[in-house]
């Protein structure tokens, strides 16, 4: 088997496949998406563990099993009758009966100074991942264009702090009822265009600034790898923020291409525990399909 991508989804998939006695090649395509964060949260028994420490532990625990970790990127993938061919960055070609994609997504941050520099430290996207650490602090939530997303995000973030300001970088496009509810919750709305983040303050086009302890944003996303397109995997559009994710059968992680499975961020499972669970689910389904296929073969 070949598992492409060694984040939480890929590592857990490789673990399940290895324990099922499947000889598995795990391709590591680089740093995990959450590498800039100080800690991973919401993961039972490992809450607060730095992302790269989680990766180290996971790799260490693969050692007893028939899993080979190869730190090279998969450049191309092709489907053939009964197997797949993957060409690596170093030019090596490898083959497998099944592929499990866990190549993830990239975050597309708004083009504003300071956001990328603060990403994972003072600029956050997920309140479940980072909300506890900034609870009761003075926060801003930047949702350009406002609308229903801005309203629902403000209602959600209000759970972690009473000191929240909504920034819409222009007209808020909120209904009267939504504005009334946010006013009742004590969430002011600033519609002035934002020009940047200093690490401790939001700056505006008119020269003013707003001191804040942290900034939340909702970046767009794009598939990190070209492999799904090369293989012809169908996608499903989840809107301008979640982006175009791979379409899979929920119970198995099977894509539209027979023999190709997917897990993790690239199918929308975007917390560590959810990504890992999706990797385990896809790996178990993949192994079961192979067992069924092998059982149907004529005895030699």
Essential attributes:
single chain, 300 residues, alpha/beta, FAD/NAD(P)-binding domain, five-stranded parallel β-sheet, 9 helices, 20 strands, elongated
Task: Give a verbal description of the structure.
- It is a single chain.
- The chain is α/β, with parallel strands linked by helices and 300 residues long.
- The chain is 28% helix and 25% strand.
- It has helices at 8-19, 51-61, 115-118, 127-130, 147-157, 176-184, 227-231, 239-242, 272-295, and strands at 2-4, 24-27, 67-70, 74-80, 83-88, 93-96, 99-101, 105-108, 123-124, 139-142, 164-167, 189-190, 194-197, 201-204, 209-211, 214-217, 220-223, 235-237, 244-246, 260-262.
- The chain has a 5-stranded parallel β-sheet with strand order 3-2-1-7-20, with helices on one face. A 5-stranded parallel β-sheet has the order 9-16-10-11-12. A 3-stranded antiparallel β-sheet has the order 4-5-6.
- The radius of gyration is 22 Å and the shape is elongated.
- The model has no long low-confidence stretch (mean pLDDT 94).
- This is Pyridine nucleotide-disulfide oxidoreductase.
- InterPro entries: FAD/NAD-bd_sf (IPR036188), FAD/NAD-binding_dom (IPR023753), Ferredoxin-NADP_redctase_2 (IPR050097).
- Keywords: Flavoprotein, Oxidoreductase.
- Pfam families: Pyr_redox_2.
Present the secondary structure layout.
Layout: E1 2-4, H1 8-19, E2 24-27, H2 51-61, E3 67-70, E4 74-80, E5 83-88, E6 93-96, E7 99-101, E8 105-108, H3 115-118, E9 123-124, H4 127-130, E10 139-142, H5 147-157, E11 164-167, H6 176-184, E12 189-190, E13 194-197, E14 201-204, E15 209-211, E16 214-217, E17 220-223, H7 227-231, E18 235-237, H8 239-242, E19 244-246, E20 260-262, H9 272-295
Parallel strand pairs: 1-2, 1-7, 2-3, 7-20, 9-16, 10-11, 10-16, 11-12
Antiparallel strand pairs: 4-5, 5-6, 8-17, 13-14, 14-15, 18-19
Domain FAD/NAD(P)-binding: 2-277
InterPro entries: FAD/NAD-bd_sf, FAD/NAD-binding_dom, Ferredoxin-NADP_redctase_2
Organism: Deinococcus sedimenti
């Amino acid at each position: 088997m070949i598992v492409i991508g060694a984040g939480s989804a890929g590592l857990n998939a490789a673990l399940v496949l290895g324990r099922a006695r499947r000889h598995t090649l795990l391709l590591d395509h680089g740093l995990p998406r959450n590498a800039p964060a100080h800690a991973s949260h919401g993961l039972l028994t490992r809450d607060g563990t730095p992302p790269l420490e989680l990766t180290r532990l996971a790799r260490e625990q693969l050692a007893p099993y028939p899993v080979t970790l190869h730190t090279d990127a998969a450049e191309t993938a092709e489907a053939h009758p009964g197997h797949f061919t993957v060409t690596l960055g170093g030019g090596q070609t490898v083959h497998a009966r099944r592929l499990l994609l866990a190549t993830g997504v990239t975050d597309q941050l708004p083009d504003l100074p300071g956001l990328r520099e603060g990403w994972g430290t003072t600029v956050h996207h997920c309140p479940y991942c980072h909300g506890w650490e900034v609870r009761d602090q003075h926060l801003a939530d930047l949702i350009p264009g406002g609308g229903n997303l801005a309203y629902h995000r403000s209602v959600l973030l209000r759970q972690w702090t009473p000191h929240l300001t909504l920034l819409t970088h222009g007209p808020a496009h909120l209904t009267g009822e939504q504005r009334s509810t946010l006013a009742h919750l004590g969430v002011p709305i600033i519609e002035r265009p934002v020009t940047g983040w200093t690490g401790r303050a939001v700056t505006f086009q008119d020269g003013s600034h707003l001191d804040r302890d942290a900034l939340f944003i909702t970046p767009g996303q794009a598939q990190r790898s070209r492999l799904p397109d090369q293989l012809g995997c169908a996608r499903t559009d989840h809107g301008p923020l979640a982006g175009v994710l791979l379409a899979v059968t929920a119970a198995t992680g099977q894509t539209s291409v027979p023999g190709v499975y997917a897990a993790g961020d690239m199918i929308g499972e975007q917390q560590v525990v959810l990504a890992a669970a999706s990797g385990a689910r896809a790996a178990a389904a993949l192994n079961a399909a192979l067992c069924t296929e092998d059982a149907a073969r004529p005895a030699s």
